[in-house]
Design brief:
- This protein has 181 residues and is mostly helical.
- It contains six helices and five strands; from the N terminus they run αββββαβαααα.
- Strand 1 and strand 2 form a beta hairpin.
- It starts with a helix and ends in a 9-residue tail after the last helix.
- The structure holds zinc ion (2 copies).
- The site of one zinc ion (ZN) has 7 residues, from loops.
């Protein structure tokens, strides 16, 4: 079953929770984590990761209770607000990982020569940089949607200071962000 995640996310934003596996509209979903590549089709943020068919990252998966039981997903049951908090936190976690990667980790990942330590990722591997940048951009777009969801309902955004810290660090690395002011 091919999931249209943009639609699913829009439905989430509009007030219903639609199970990405069976399509049931439910008041509560199970939120859990999985590393299985097969789970990426049920992981909202994986829509933007590349290539998500082979995604072995630890990812947040949302399923209705029946599907969670069937797929043996370990997790907790949350209502819509709980789900939005989980999505927001997952989005932040991924953005932090992306930030760390741009700042430092890519050097280990690519095993670059010590004399190239001063290079930036976009110089060392433009293609990889483009891919990483697209992923980060996608995450930031989702972040803004989640943020808007809380705002629209006058709900408190958990750990609101996170955003400005992230922006400071990205700007310090001379990269652009949609989350700035
Ligand atoms: Zn289901
Ligand atoms: Zn993924």
């Amino acid at each position: 079953m091919q999931i249209d995640w943009q639609r699913a996310i829009n439905e989430i934003l509009s007030g219903e929770i639609c199970c990405p596996r069976c399509g049931a509209l439910v008041p509560e979903v199970v939120v859990g984590y999985s590393r299985a590549a097969s789970a990426s089709q049920f992981a909202p943020l994986c829509q933007g990761c590349n290539p998500h068919e082979e995604c072995d990252a630890r990812k947040l998966v949302l399923l209705c209770e029946a599907c969670a039981h069937e797929l043996r997903l370990r997790g907790r049951k949350v209502n819509q607000e709980g789900m939005m908090v989980a999505l927001l936190e997952e989005c932040r976690r991924n953005l932090e990982e992306s930030l760390d990667y741009l700042a430092e980790y890519w050097r280990e990942d690519l095993d670059i020569d010590p004399e190239d330590m001063d290079k930036r990722l976009e110089e060392a591997d433009p293609e990889l940089f483009t891919q990483e940048n697209a992923w980060r951009r996608y995450l930031e777009e989702q972040y803004l949607k989640f943020h808007h969801w809380f705002r629209e309902r006058s709900l408190r955004i958990p750990n609101a200071a996170w955003r400005s810290e992230y922006v400071e660090e990205i700007v310090a690395l001379s990269y652009e962000t949609l989350l700035g002011d």
